[in-house]
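R.M. (postdoc): so does anyone remember the format we settled on? I'll just put the structure tokens first.
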């Protein structure tokens, strides 16, 4: 396991999750974006895909050539980003039993992938 590559891959996955959140959800934040879906797609698709591409590459090297670890890492980090972005922009609560349980499960998945 190469921690340097795992950290780099994780940072890229977090950034990719932020970009994906904006691409999908700006329509609910601003009426201006609601009527411009293709502009959102054009602006966010290439950067998001590029960030995820390289995040996958680095995380794969970091895990020692196992794609399952990369998949769970990407999923868990995206779930940690989503609730906080949604709370910040839309005011939806993060600290509900359901959301906290899912966040805890995401943290456990990260732990299992990195430590076991």
């Amino acid at each position: 396991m190469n921690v340097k590559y795992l950290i780099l891959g994780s940072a890229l996955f977090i950034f990719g999750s932020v970009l994906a959140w904006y691409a999908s959800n700006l329509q609910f934040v601003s009426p201006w974006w609601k009527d411009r879906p293709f502009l959102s797609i054009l602006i966010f698709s290439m950067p998001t895909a590029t960030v995820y591409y390289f995040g996958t590459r680095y995380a794969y090297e970091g895990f020692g050539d196992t794609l399952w670890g990369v998949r769970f890492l990407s999923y868990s980090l995206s779930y940690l980003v989503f609730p906080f972005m949604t709370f910040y922009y839309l005011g939806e609560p993060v600290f509900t039993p359901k959301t906290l349980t899912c966040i805890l499960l995401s943290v456990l998945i990260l732990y299992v992938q990195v430590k076991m």
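R.M.: ...and that's the designed sequence above, right after the tokens. Also worth knowing: Residues 3-115 form one domain. The mean pLDDT is 93.
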